[in-house]
Design brief:
The structure is a single chain. The protein has seven helices and five strands. It is of the alpha+beta class and 163 residues long. α1 packs antiparallel against α2 and α3 packs across α4. The chain is 43% helix and 12% strand. The mean pLDDT is 89. The N and C termini lie close together (5 Å). A hairpin with a 2-residue loop joins β4 and β5. The protein binds FE2/S2 (inorganic) cluster (FES). It comes from Desulfoluna spongiiphila. Keywords: 2Fe-2S, Iron, Iron-sulfur, Metal-binding. One of its GO terms (molecular function) is 2 iron, 2 sulfur cluster binding.
Length: 163
């Protein structure tokens, strides 16, 4: 699934909705992120102009918030926890298995835009360590076997959508 073309009409409608709002930047960015799956860098200038901000301020906010991204992500996003509780329970080996199985490194997206692999400092579910998220779902007490079954779910549904 390739990232969709930028829908400028949709983007302009979101920007218009928040034009001039004093505290509108984060809601606006979140709406663009939800609609397009990322915030196209080309959208920074019109967003800044609508909210009377500098483009660098908009860029800084996007870079600060983990939920916002300037790059298109895969259809499925895996976040492997590398925090202390997960680390002591084998989080690094979970990450190694994920890298090997998906064929990508942390911070990367597969060439077909099906998977993205990320690491996080703590998912806030230390009692489930080692933990990861598959899209919005928490998966804890991971083991190599459990990862295999999680990934098979995603790979079995590989043809669920046309490319
Ligand atoms: S350290 Fe992994 S969930 Fe907290």
């Amino acid at each position: 699934m390739k990232p969709q073309e930028i829908d400028w009409e949709q983007l302009s409608a979101i920007i218009r909705k928040h034009r001039g709002e004093k505290w509108g930047l984060i809601p606006l960015l979140q709406e663009v992120q939800d609609a397009l799956g990322y915030i196209p860098p080309e959208a920074i200038a019109p967003i800044a102009s609508a909210l009377k901000l500098y483009p660098s301020e908009v860029q800084g906010v996007i870079e600060f918030y983990a939920g916002l991204s300037l790059k298109p992500k895969g259809k499925h996003v895996f976040k492997v926890c590398c925090g202390t509780a997960c680390h002591v329970k084998g989080g690094r080996s979970i990450l190694s298995i994920m890298k090997k199985e998906l064929g990508i490194n942390e911070g990367e997206t597969s060439a077909d835009y099906r998977y993205s692999l990320e690491t996080v400092a703590c998912l806030g579910a230390c009692f489930l360590a080692p933990t990861m998220m598959a899209d919005k779902e928490y998966i804890g007490r991971l083991s190599p076997r459990k990862i295999e079954s999680v990934l098979s779910h995603f790979t079995e549904n590989k043809d669920e959508e046309p490319e």
